Each structure stands twice: as structure tokens, then as C-alpha cells.
Amino acid sequence: MTDTKSLRSRKWFDNLDDPEMTALYIERYLNYGLTLEELRSGKPVIGIAQTGSDLSPCNRHHIELAKRTRDGIIAAGGIPMEIPVHPIQETGKRPTAMLDRNLAYLSLVESLYGYPIDGVVLTIGCDKTTPALLMAAATVGMPALAFSVGPMLNGWHRGERAGSGSVIWQARQELAAGAIDAEEFLEIAASSAPSVGFCNTMGTASTMNSLSEALGMQLPGVASIPAPYRERGQAAWYTGQRIVDMVREDLRPAKIMTREAFKNAIVVNSALGGSTNAPIHLNAIAAHLGIALSNGDWEEIGHAVPLLVNMQPVGTYLGEDFHRAGGTAAVIGELLRAGLLPHPDALSVTGQTIADLYADMPILDDDVIRRAAAPLKPNAGFLNMSGNLFDSALMKTSAIDEGFRARYFSNAEETFEGRVAVFDGPEDFHARIDDPALGLTDDSVLVMRGAGPKGYPGGAEVVNMRPPSYLIKQGIRALPCIGDGRQSGTSGSASILNASPEAADGGGLAILKDGDPIRIDLKQRRVDVLLEEAEIAARRAALDAAGGYAQPDSQSPWQEIFREKVRPFSEGMVFEGATEYRDITNR
Ligand code: FES
Ligand code: MG
């Protein structure tokens, strides 16, 4: 138990050695109604890192939920203080919400470090909010408890489940093929967002919220409760209550988010069919804790794990179905029972082990969450690809459907050779993809470059490129795609993505030209351009002489700072030097 005298907020509110500063610090916190008695009573001050706002609709329900979190904090003897977090809305921010992950991280670190906060509730939800807040918790090192806003209710369109994001990818193809008009496109999009909450598919939001529970950073069973359900408000109260005790117990993030916990999370991610953004974010959180975690670990630990969750984009169901089937808790329980979770003894925010908490969490519908003995797919984790164009890129094997595998990787070696069509960013793709002069066939490989953290600051979610409309009309719904950008977690595409280093950072994709022959080798985990060494060297020299891969100018001061500091996707897109600052409130 921490002696209340050692709480860091005492330095502001009750410092007998410096009564003058204490008076100055304390006066403004009195002017909205806090009393001297409260502030000098030794109660832990709990920040509620508030990610909800009118700019951030996915997390906006946290404004309401925070009222119950406050009640829980007060009931347990703490003092709540709500802290605004820089807004991040996945679908609204231009050029990409990913650009603001590190900005929200940096600003929350300053807020938590610079003010009288003893512990923090992290209100997570929309894609980048979860990693930004967990990264900040890692850096500051004070007790922290994550709390999801929860997924939206299921969306429905004409009697079918309409999954957020996923239905948009399908509707785009229908629009390109002329099967629907713009009006119906809008109607479909709106139907997939029926309530407050985050995306109801197993996109990046559901993935990261589930993984925060798998890491031990959320109360058990909380990640998957739909946002509007009453249990969500009740979980807010329990979260508020628990964080106060975590401060008293001095239960810090570094005790929970260990390398063992990350290994558990990688396994859970495979079972979920989780997003290809997860490795970027978990590698970043780990880096801020000083824990080594690489894309190689993701393949080594995660590849052989079976797919258990039958949720869009790779499966059928949505968030409400997932919750009723037992949610993330049931997935962790099933992995434990099957002996697949590598570290059952990892600690949770409750102070108990994952095994203690989850071993008896049942699957309540085994069509939505499959049993480990009858999975949707074996070997559902990522492949970590490399070759003569990049050092590391990921492929989500759970997203390879049978038709695609039969068309491209049916030989015993699981290799495919094709010719590339190369696009410099999403604008170039949209301008040229339907141009018949490109002459694309089903032997074409679409390559996207200039879409990584430096090239398109933050990295664009654009590697899952659709074929040209003339091929879609022939029934070709997907071509192999490779790129240094990302793809939305709600896309079911088996692209090879997050290629590091990116074209704008000296990566080999920069030397490709339309029509170059390329080989993808799934068994050897390689992607190689089939050019002579001398030709590759000559193209590299020409590129260097021209000053490197051309990228567009920054549009804001932050974009410029970001580009100067950022590390590749494979290293979590963290900032150079930032990971040296660890546990800063305990130094
Ligand atoms: Fe916010 Fe998907 S867009 S969670
Ligand atoms: Mg996204």
C-alpha cells in the first residue's frame, strides 16, 4: 500500500516544505468548487483522459460515461479530474488519423506529468486513441486503467448485417461496377453506423480494445460490451472504483504490460482475426516500455494460432453478436483451455492473473466464437515478409480467401509471379486505375508507394487497392497488393503492407517501374523484384542523384516535425528518442 503522503499530488496540494507554492497551486482548483479539505485529505487525484468530443464521434459517448467513472472514483475515495486529449477521429481527420497518434501521446504525457495526477483512466475506443493512451501510460509510469467506449450496435441494410468499414469496401466495388448509385452508397454507409460507439467489425478499434484487455489493462469482460448497453455504464463505475485502489497498491503499467503480456496479446490477435495495424501499435507501446517487440515476433508467436472469431471483415458477425457469445473474455478463456495462451500467469489490472480471471469465461455461441478444436482457419496470424524491396512487411493470412489462394498460390511452392503496376499515393491510384492504357490483367500486382509514415505523413490506409472496373466486371474482385502504406482493419484484403523502410525513407519500392516482374513466395516469406543486381544498383544510383524519392510538401508544422522524427512502421512509428523517456513520474 502506498502511504498517501507519498502521492505525487501532495507535492502540489500539501507540501509543508513549500507553503507558498502549495497556496499558488491549490487556489485555482478551489474556484470550481473543490474544497481545501478534499484537496488536502490525501485522496488520490485520478485523471480521466477524455478522448470524446464532437470532433470524435466514435468516442463521444465517453463524455456521458465519464460521469459514472467519476462516481466510481469518488465512491472509492478519490478525486476525479477530467483531462482533454487531443482529438483523433479515424474517419474525419485529414490526411490521416494516424498522423495524430503521436501528437495525442505527447500531449497526454505532458498533461499527466505536469499536473497533480496520481493515476489515470484511459478512455479508449476509435483506432488510434487506444495506442496513443497506452503509449502515454507507458511513458509516465503511473497506475493506469483502460476503459473502452464499446462497439456500436449491429448495423443492418436490407436484412443483412452491415459492418462498419467492411460494407464500404464492398459498396465501392458495387459503385465501380455500376450496380448502385451514389445515393445508395450513402444509405449503406449510414446503416453501418447505427449508434454511439466504435466500429462494430473486427477492425482496428475492436482489435485494439480487445488487445488492451488481453494485455491486462482493462477490467475483465469489459472490452466488448456495446457502447449503448447498460453494462457499459456499470463498467465505467467499476473502472473508477478500481483505479483508486490501483493507486493505493501502486500497481503500475510496467508490472502489467510485460513482454509476456505482449506475447499473450499477439496470440489473442490471431484468434480474433485482428487488424494489421495492431503490430504497429503494440510494437510502439512495447518500445515505450523498453520491451523489444518486432514483426518477427508477430509471425513466430502468432502465425500458428487458429482463427476463432467469426466476425467481419473475414467472417459473418458484428460486435453485438460477439459480446453475446462471450466477447474477448471468452476468446481468452478458450485459448487458455486449449493451452494456446503462452503466459497464463501474466498480471491484470485487478492484481489477479489472466488464468485466474479467464479460465472459466465460457463461449456462449460457438458459431460466433469457435472452439479451438474446430476453428475457422488454422494458422491465422501474420506472415512477416522481406526481400530485395523491403526488410519487413506483413500479410494477414486469415484474410486470404480460398478463391484468391487458388488463383495465385495454388502451386506447391505457394509462389506467384506477376507484373507490377506502381502508384505514387492514393491520388495517383484513383487517377489511373481505370485507365485501359494500364492494361491490367489478373496477373498484375498492384503496388502502392509514397504512403508510409514519412511519404504520406502518418501513413495512408490505401494498400488494399481494388482492381480496375473492367476486371471487376469480369469477376476479378481482388489482385495481389503490396505497399508501404497501411490498410484499414475493416478491409478483408490479403495485401502485403506496412513495408519498411518505405519508399520515402530509402526503401526499395522507390525503384520499381510499371511492368517490372515480381515474385511473391509465401513459404519463404519473400517478395523480390526479378531484376538483375546491376539494374537495381543503377536505378538506386539514379534515384539518389535525383535527391531520393519525391514526396509532397508538408501541409502543417506538425507534419514537418512528424516527418523529421518518425521511425518506420516496423518499429511502431514511434519518435526518435521518445522511447528513452520511461516511467518519468517515478524517477
Ligand atoms: Fe472510429 Fe472505426 S472509425 S472506430
Ligand atoms: Mg483505420
Automatic annotation (TrEMBL):
Keywords, alphabetical: Iron, Iron-sulfur, Lyase, Metal-binding
E.C. number(s) listed in UniProt: 4.2.1.25
All copies of domain Dihydroxy-acid/6-phosphogluconate dehydratase N-terminal, residue ranges: 43-356
Domain Dihydroxy-acid/6-phosphogluconate dehydratase C-terminal: 367-572
Stored Pfam families: ILV_EDD_C, ILVD_EDD_N
Entry keyword Protease: no
GO MF annotation: an example: iron-sulfur cluster binding
Record family assignment: Belongs to the IlvD/Edd family.
NCBIfam families xref list: PRK06131.1 (NF004784), PRK13017.1 (NF009560)
Protein name: L-arabonate dehydratase
Source organism per UniProt: Pseudooceanicola algae
Lineage, top ranks: Bacteria, Pseudomonadati, Pseudomonadota, Alphaproteobacteria, Rhodobacterales
